[in-house]
């Protein structure tokens, strides 16, 4: 039985990494262009040339760049990317960046609301940093951001263990008992969130709900990841009698060191996020069935 669980866990890890890779490569250069005025690109950047006018510009897995003098009459939205308004660029409606930033150059104007959802909070800790071409500088910035995330997560995890220890223990037990299901729920939840964000992004009614969706997903991923962190600590200290707090801190140390590995660290932490997301969803569903 233990061997089956390990094999299942390996397959889910492979599947999770594959989904991450596919989401950034396989959908590249897929466009939906309606009358040259409503542009949606999956897995790539949307660039509005100078002085051109379009109604909507949306990028799923890329940046939206509105070049000098260009105009978007309705909305500009980037999911897992940045929205960049160059000099004298204009958006009459709303501007949102989900997992990125809204960057405006001097003279650029935004007529409606603007904001970010999960800024620099993509799946995994190693997001992009614009304007830093040096690998060393990027690595230092990414590492600093990673350590800040770890510090915040550690504080939250310690508080939960002091206040409601059974919550994280239940999540760790879910990952331990149902590794395959946790991974599949995480992958399914990730795809569901992507589809939901796309549906909201192309709907004027749904755009105001994007920040709320981002907040709910962020909280879910954070809590789930803390449960996986405790599970990692339990596995690492299985031969020693340690308290849940000690096991959690050991898990934090392990994932912190893994996260400092360039590229691979980001992929591993993305998988941890997915497992945590799935474990929390699975635990909530199982809990609801028992009520």
Automatic annotation (TrEMBL):
<feature type="transmembrane region" description="Helical">
    <location>
        <begin position="267"/>
        <end position="285"/>
    </location>
</feature>
<dbReference type="Pfam" id="PF26514">
    <property type="entry name" value="DUF8173"/>
</dbReference>
<keyword id="KW-0732">Signal</keyword>
<feature type="transmembrane region" description="Helical">
    <location>
        <begin position="184"/>
        <end position="206"/>
    </location>
</feature>
<feature type="transmembrane region" description="Helical">
    <location>
        <begin position="139"/>
        <end position="163"/>
    </location>
</feature>
<dbReference type="GO" id="GO:0043886">
    <property type="term" value="F:structural constituent of carboxysome shell"/>
</dbReference>
<protein>
    <recommendedName>
        <fullName>DUF8173 domain-containing protein</fullName>
    </recommendedName>
</protein>
<feature type="transmembrane region" description="Helical">
    <location>
        <begin position="212"/>
        <end position="233"/>
    </location>
</feature>
<keyword id="KW-0812">Transmembrane</keyword>
<keyword id="KW-0472">Membrane</keyword>
<dbReference type="GO" id="GO:0031470">
    <property type="term" value="C:carboxysome"/>
</dbReference>
<dbReference type="InterPro" id="IPR011004">
    <property type="entry name" value="Trimer_LpxA-like_sf"/>
</dbReference>
<keyword id="KW-1133">Transmembrane helix</keyword>
<dbReference type="InterPro" id="IPR058486">
    <property type="entry name" value="DUF8173"/>
</dbReference>
<feature type="domain" description="DUF8173">
    <location>
        <begin position="148"/>
        <end position="287"/>
    </location>
</feature>
<feature type="signal peptide">
    <location>
        <begin position="1"/>
        <end position="28"/>
    </location>
</feature>
């Amino acid at each position: 039985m233990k061997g089956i669980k390990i094999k299942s866990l390996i397959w889910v890890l492979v599947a999770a990494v594959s989904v991450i890779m596919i989401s950034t490569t396989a959908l590249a250069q897929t466009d939906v262009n309606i009358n040259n005025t409503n542009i949606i690109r999956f897995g790539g950047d949307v660039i509005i040339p100078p002085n051109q006018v379009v109604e909507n510009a949306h990028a799923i897995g890329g940046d939206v760049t509105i070049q000098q003098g260009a105009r978007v009459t309705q909305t500009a939205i980037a999911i897992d990317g940045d929205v960049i308004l160059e000099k004298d660029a204009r958006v009459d409606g709303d501007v949102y960046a989900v997992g990125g930033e809204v960057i405006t150059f001097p003279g650029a104007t935004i007529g409606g609301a603007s904001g970010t959802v999960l800024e620099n909070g993509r799946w995994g800790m190693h997001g992009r940093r614009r304007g830093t071409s040096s690998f060393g500088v990027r690595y230092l910035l990414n590492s600093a951001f990673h350590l800040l995330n770890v510090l915040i997560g550690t504080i939250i995890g310690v508080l939960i263990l002091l206040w409601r220890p059974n919550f994280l223990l239940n999540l760790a037990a879910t990952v331990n008992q149902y590794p395959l299901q946790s991974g599949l729920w995480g992958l399914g939840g990730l795809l569901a969130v992507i589809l939901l964000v796309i549906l909201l992004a192309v709907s004027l009614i749904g755009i105001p709900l994007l920040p709320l969706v981002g907040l709910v997903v962020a909280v879910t991923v954070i809590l789930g990841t803390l449960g996986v962190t405790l599970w990692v600590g339990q596995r690492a200290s299985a031969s020693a009698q340690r308290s849940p707090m000690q096991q959690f801190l050991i898990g934090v140390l392990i994932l912190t060191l893994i996260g400092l590995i360039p590229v691979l660290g980001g992929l591993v932490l993305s998988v941890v996020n997915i497992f945590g997301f799935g474990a929390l969803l699975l635990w909530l569903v199982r809990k609801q069935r028992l009520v």
